[in-house]
Hints:
50% of the residues lie in helices and 10% in strands. It is mostly helical. The chain has one domain (19-143). Strands 1-3-2 form a three-stranded antiparallel beta sheet. The protein has a two-stranded antiparallel ribbon with strand order 4-5. The two termini are 25 Å apart. InterPro entries: HK97-gp10_tail. It holds the Pfam family HK97-gp10_like. This is Phage protein, HK97 gp10 family.
Amino acid sequence: xxxxxxxxxxxxxxxxxxxxxxxxxxxxxxxxxxxxxxxxxxxxxxxxxxxxxxxxxxxxxxxxxxxxxxxxxxxxxxxxxxxxxxxxxxxxxxxxxxxxxxxxxxxxxxxxxxxxxxxxxxxxxxxxxxxxxxxxxxxxxxxxxx
Length: 146
């Protein structure tokens, strides 16, 4: 029996086998790459520079990029992929204060929105989550000999 949240947290981190973590991380990477590929297909291409900055990473996004979202409570999230677009090179404006990815995604007064970022995530979110859940479930079954 486990008493308290700290004891439960300690037990869970020790009892999750590496094979299950590997299965989950592989599924997360595959899903992130699918989302990134769709974003790259949908992004408007003037110079192609913005498309070249779309990617994913474990942990934090590069400085100056636009991200899908941040998980507020990192205490329980040891495996975290961030999908991002843009970099310091794709900042625009008189003082480089605007991210081109954000301007294209939501539009401006003079330019309508050309969404490529959040729509790609929404289109793939259910599939990615299902893939991760399925991979974890299958890895647990393999670990238990089922």
